[in-house]
Amino acid sequence: MSPLRLISTFLVPLVFVSCVGLGEKLRDEPLPLADMEEPVALFQEPDDEAIRVSLPAGGFSGVVVKEVAESLDDLVDGGEGVVVTRVVENSPGDFAGLKIDDILLEATPEGGETVELAYPSHWRRLELETSPGTPIEIVFDRADEEMTTELVLAPRAHPANRAEAERFREEDRVGVVLRTATEVEARRAGLSPGGGAVVVGLSARSPWRGKVRFKDLIAAVDEKPVDHPNVVLEAIAKAPEDGVLQLKLRREAEELTVKAPVSRRETAIEEVEIFPIFSHEEKRGRSETKVLLGLFGYEETSAAWEMTLLWFIHFGGGDADRLEEVQEEPQP
To answer: Would the pTM of this model clear 0.85, i.e. be above it?
Structure first.
């Protein structure tokens, strides 16, 4: 057989088959941590509504706000201002001319300091700490045009509505799940409603194990108040390699400070292929090995296995649907 015919007979089909696997898209998102622990009991908020409604209610603006960021990535990148989601009719906010979708940038109470608004807790702090009747100058953005108005807080007859809890997952450097603190939890820690981050999940291999416990409230990170759980996430994301964060915690009635290191994801080889002789793939509890295009194959999971010989001979087994019987020794 001539060399050219040999190439066309054997090499070209091999190249074609090998190219079939090219172009497979690599994942662009990390896998969820397999050892994340989230106690079921911590999916429920504390039942502290009776205490919440008895707390000092502060002033009334009639303006409800949320973060400008639309995603967690936007939050970590940082945002400017808080967006108005509701204006109560005939409220001080309504008289000030504020509208839904306005972005409040900063506020200056008469005789006080200017507050840059980045999180809803900043707005709630103004409502709690500014006396009713005090004019507040507000700089806001409406359709990319910066404007100014004056809002005068009124006395509040009823407590503000309870905010819904949110959960935030960090799985790249620490392995932690955070919940927004309730108003009672936040104010006990010296924070405004919306501030504070409660630990409700930890990876089994988290570098915070042994330093941070479930239900700990993180009040500050590197001496910066946690006005939103994003403050913690941002500090984790920006920490240098092998960095250590200083966390101010509230654990029940105790306040303490701990040094909490950050880590990084382990890397692992998931696939080896020497086409057409050998291939091996291993992903999250499943491994598969093939020799000579499947002439011999072996696949295994945590519950079952299968062996293939000559493509058409199969053996398989795994866990049965029953437990083994235990033969107890007779009592003397």
So the answer is: no
